[in-house]
């Protein structure tokens, strides 16, 4: 375990303890009178007509899939950028080829309207 | 000592998360435990001094793929699925097959038990991990890297073709 | 075991300070935002609690702690509980790698930038889970929108960050600032004008990442009530709020580190400007202290007068401390870092008060059809400029 990561792990534990402690402390002092109508989900005052966990538009799903692909692309860029000063022109050409291939895909998406929300 | 402590912490997070992933009824709960497992794996990468991989593991798997998973889970009707029977009639056959695989894995582990020692920590500081990855990827393995871009292209096209009916 | 020294304990002391003071600081950030908004709309803003409303954040905190925590009947209790905790944890933990100055950094890791991006991508999960757990229409829609928006702009942010990495050659936050000191310029002006473009992209992406207006679609109150936070109340809601403002500070500190020279003084290599290291902190604290003391006699209540006088004297004392060379040498980095963050935060607020909200399809189009191609082209352009410079 590289030593300089231990503070991050400790900080994660401490940062998680903060909301837990604060919520439990608040539980001791706050009032609680939950019953009946108060427990229905907010729906602008009318009775909820359906369970909300239903189906929704597929566009969100397309965006998520494209995000994963572009995220992989940026992850490839990080080590390249860090090592760029050593790679010089060779690195540039390499990345140009990589990005050109992906740009083909991007242009296809653009033309097909996959990037349009409506 | 500290090394072993962290290894066992991460390993138990992975195992516990994996176990809970397959036993929860609600798909969203399963996804949450799968996230815990993936974070544990990131921890193990960190433990092995592969910092860059640890970061990428969290960004891609937890921040990317698990978001996609959660979207898919929300896309289908969850409650109906949860109410259905969780086991089908061939469960004993499945149990038998799983036991066989488990026995095989255990035998393999038993045969290779000599490898179960903790190597000592690498003395001194390793070169920055990201630079090492950059060197390997962009000098020694240039072709696989370029091929990866074609794979990404195929994934991009495939994702949209499958998700969008009218093109 | 290494011996326990002050140097070994420093990161842990800073951690406790951040977790302890951070929420209060966020409270004052909210007060600042309300005051600024009031000022731009020719109102007074909070004036009742304490002098000029200075104690408002404390009153808010007490109120939120005492407020009833309504958990609707149909929610998934476990996830409902977990989601805000995840978001707030990742928002706070991101400070672990933020270099407040060369001396004040909890831990400097080789993948500092990546660590912040990773934590913020985990924070997204808290939002999507929170919206799902509530089992109500508005939160679900809000969280879907929030997630799609945040992941889209994460890609944009990634391209902007890569532009800086090309110039810095490292993912460590401290190394990036040092690289700026060595090249005698902020990366904002590196590979001119492409550094500026990268900063602009980062700025827009940061605003979308933190769900700030004009990109506050996930909580657009006119259509989605309060977005993913609709069913959250009391202190649980406060946790989301806290995380949001923490994230604003985190993205601003990342921007300061990447583009604006971190803890370095403006024009770090111009030696005859060295007097700025003293003039700026002493001057600004003197000004703030003097203003407080001037306002004392305007306060209607004796209590307010005492509080404001104490605040004024404390500010003057800090000004005095900054005039002391030993203190100044230790803390001027922190001062510059904080000052730069405040400028960015101020500009975030200014934008919020000035621009109307985007429509969701406009937001997505901006992200996917403008920003991402711009990002790719910008990265290539910087690469070419760097090769030409040798």
Question: How would you sum up this structure in a few lines?
Answer:
With 167 residues, chain B is mostly helical. Chain B is 77% helix and 0% strand.
Can you tell me about this structure?
The complex is a heterotrimer of chains A (118), B (167) and C (390). Chain A has helices at 6-29, 59-82, 84-112. Chain A is mainly alpha-helical. Chain A has one domain: NADH:ubiquinone/plastoquinone oxidoreductase, chain 3 (Methane Monooxygenase Hydroxylase, Chain G, domain 1, Up-down Bundle). The mean pLDDT of chain A is 82. With 167 residues, chain B is mainly alpha-helical. Chain B has two domains: 1-97, Up-down Bundle (Four Helix Bundle (Hemerythrin (Met), subunit A)), CATH 1.20.120.1200; 128-167. Chain B has helices spanning 2-23, 27-47, 51-75, 78-83, 91-111, 129-140, 142-163. The longest helix of chain B is centred in the middle third of the chain and has 25 residues, at 51-75. Chain C is an all-alpha fold and 390 residues long. Chain C folds into two domains: 1-66, no CATH class; 74-264 and 361-390, no CATH class. Chain C has helices at 6-40, 56-66, 77-93, 112-133, 137-168, 173-182, 194-209, 221-224, 234-259, 276-296, 302-323, 325-354, 360-389. In chain C, α5 (137-168) packs antiparallel against α7 (194-209). The model of chain C has no long low-confidence stretch (mean pLDDT 88).
Strand content of chain C: under 5%
Helical segment tally of chain C?
13
Number of domains of chain C: 2
Put simply, the count of helices of chain A is: 3
Radius of gyration of chain A: 25 Å
Mean pLDDT metric of chain A: 82
Class by SSE composition of chain C: mainly alpha
- State the low-pLDDT regions of chain C, or none: none
Largest interface, by Cβ-Cβ below 8 angstroms: which chains and how many residues each?
A: A-C, 69 and 79 residues
Low-confidence stretches of chain A: none
Taking the sheet with the most strands of chain A, its summary is: none
Q: Tell me the count of domains of chain A.
A: 1
- Radius of gyration of chain C over all CA atoms, rounded: 22 Å
Classification by helices and strands of chain A: mainly alpha
Helical residue percent of chain A? 55-70%
Order of helices and strands of chain A: HHH
N/C terminus separation of chain C: 47 Å
Provide the CATH architecture of chain A.
Answer: Up-down Bundle
Oligomer description: heterotrimer
- Could you state the CATH homologous superfamily of chain A? NADH:ubiquinone/plastoquinone oxidoreductase, chain 3
CATH class value of chain A: Mainly Alpha
């Amino acid at each position: 375990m590289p030593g300089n990561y231990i503070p991050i792990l400790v900080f994660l534990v401490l940062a998680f303890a903060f909301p837990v402690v604060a919520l439990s402390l608040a539980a001791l002092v706050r009032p609680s009178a939950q019953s009946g109508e108060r427990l229905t989900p907010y729906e602008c005052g009318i009775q909820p007509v359906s369970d909300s966990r239903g189906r929704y538009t597929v566009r969100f799903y397309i965006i998520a899939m494209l995000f994963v692909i572009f995220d992989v692309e940026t992850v490839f860029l990080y080590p390249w950028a860090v090592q760029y000063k050593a790679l010089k022109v060779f690195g540039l050409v390499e990345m140009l080829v990589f990005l050109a291939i992906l740009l083909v895909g991007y242009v296809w998406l653009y033309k097909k309207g996959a990037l349009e929300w409506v | 000592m500290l090394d072993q402590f962290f290894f066992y912490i991460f390993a138990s997070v992975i195992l516990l998360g994996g176990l809970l992933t397959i036993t929860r009824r609600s798909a969203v709960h399963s996804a949450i435990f799968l996230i815990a497992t993936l974070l544990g794996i990131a921890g193990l990468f960190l433990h092995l001094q592969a910092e860059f991989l640890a970061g990428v593991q969290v960004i891609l798997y937890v921040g990317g793929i698990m978001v996609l998973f959660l979207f898919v889970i929300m896309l289908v009707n969850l409650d109906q699925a949860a109410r259905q029977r969780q086991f089908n009639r061939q469960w004993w056959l499945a149990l038998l097959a799983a036991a066989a695989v488990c026995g095989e894995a255990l035998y393999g582990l038993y045969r290779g038990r000599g490898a179960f020692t903790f190597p000592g920590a690498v003395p001194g500081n390793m070169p920055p991990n990201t630079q090492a990855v950059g060197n390997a990827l962009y000098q020694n393995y240039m072709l696989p890297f370029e091929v990866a871009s074609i794979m990404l292209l195929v994934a991009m096209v495939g994702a949209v073709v499958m998700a969008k009916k009218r093109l | 075991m290494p011996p326990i020294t002050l140097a070994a304990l420093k990161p842990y002391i800073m951690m406790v300070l951040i977790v302890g003071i951070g929420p209060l600081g966020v409270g004052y950030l909210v007060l600042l935002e309300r005051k600024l908004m009031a000022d731009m709309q020719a109102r007074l803003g909070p004036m009742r609690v304490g002098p000029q409303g200075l104690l408002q954040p404390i009153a808010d905190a007490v109120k939120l702690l005492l407020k009833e925590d309504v958990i609707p009947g149909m929610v998934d209790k476990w996830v409902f509980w977990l989601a805000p905790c995840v978001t707030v944890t990742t928002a706070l933990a991101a400070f672990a790698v933020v270099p407040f100055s060369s001396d004040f950094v909890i831990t400097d890791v080789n993948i500092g930038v990546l660590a912040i991006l990773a934590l913020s991508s985990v924070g997204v999960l808290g939002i999507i889970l929170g919206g799902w757990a509530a089992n109500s229409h508005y939160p679900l829609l809000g969280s879907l929108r929030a997630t799609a928006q945040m992941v889209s702009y994460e890609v944009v942010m990634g391209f902007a960050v890569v532009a800086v990495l090309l110039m810095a050659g490292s993912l460590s936050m401290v190394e990036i600032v040092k690289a700026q000191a060595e090249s005698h310029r902020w990366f904002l002006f590196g590979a001119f004008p492409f550094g500026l473009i990268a900063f602009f992209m980062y700025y827009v992406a940061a605003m979308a990442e933190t769900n700030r207006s004009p990109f506050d679609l996930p909580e657009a109150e006119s259509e989605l009530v309060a977005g993913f936070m609709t069913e959250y109340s009391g202190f649980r809601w406060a946790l989301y709020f806290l995380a949001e403002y923490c994230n604003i500070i985190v993205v601003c500190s990342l921007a300061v580190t990447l583009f604006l020279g971190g803890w370095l003084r403006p024009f770090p290599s111009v030696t005859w400007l060295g007097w700025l290291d003293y003039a700026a902190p002493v001057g600004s604290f003197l000004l703030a202290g003097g203003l407080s003391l001037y306002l004392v006699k305007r306060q209607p209540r004796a209590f307010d007068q005492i509080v404001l006088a104490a605040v004024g004297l404390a500010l003057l004392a800090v000004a005095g401390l900054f005039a002391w060379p030993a203190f100044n040498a230790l803390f001027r980095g922190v001062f510059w870092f904080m000052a730069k963050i405040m400028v960015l935060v101020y500009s975030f607020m200014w934008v919020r008060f000035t621009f109307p909200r985007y429509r969701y399809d406009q937001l997505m189009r901006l992200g996917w059809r403008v920003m991402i191609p711009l990002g790719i082209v910008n990265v290539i352009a910087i690469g070419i400029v760097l090769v030409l410079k040798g």
